[in-house]
Amino acid sequence: MICSEEIRLAKYADVVHVAEMSRDIIESGLGWSWTPSRVAKEIGSKNANVIVSVEGNEVVGFAIIKYFNREARLNLFGVHPKYRRKGIGTRLIRWLEETAVTNGNGVVYLETRLKNESAREFYKSLGYRIVQRIPRFYMGRETAVRMAHDLWSGASQE
Q: Nearest CA to 49 among 98, 6, 86, 16?
């Protein structure tokens, strides 16, 4: 397990690296939709957080979450392949979930490719459950699985 990485809010200097990681490890085969300008827009948004995990000077993981009234949507999440299975992804997700609860969001939704079984298993290990299947979600040709995590289950709700 890596213990020396830091999780922090992304800076504009991180935009290109996050966008390129998205293109190369998440959007592969779909075209590039999370371009540097789109990532930068989310960094500047009052209703979103863009976070990165940094090892030394290298961004090794990232996530983008958007907050709504009582729910949040994890729009983008990735960890560089050589840093996977070291706890980085779990720490990124937990950071976002704690922030979501503080913000009053009780549920986090996300989508992942139907064929990405390892992603589904990772999210399931963190408490996410499949709630919907969405045909042609990705670029009109790939099916997505929508997953949700109820952050309030077991906690008192007002």
A: 98
Residue 23 host element (H or E): none
Instruction: Using alpha carbons, select from 50, 17, 49 the residue that is nearest to residue 36.
Output: 17
Quick one: fold of 6-150? Aminopeptidase (3.40.630)
Amino acid symbol at 113: R
- Report the candidate in 142, 133, 131, 127 with the shortest Cα–Cα distance to residue 26: 142
Distances from the Cα of 43 to the Cαs of 9, 39, 50, 52, 150, in angstroms? Answer: 8, 6, 6, 11, 25
pLDDT tens column, 93-142: 999 999 999 999 999 999 999 999 999 999 999 999 999 998 878 777 88
pTM: 0.89
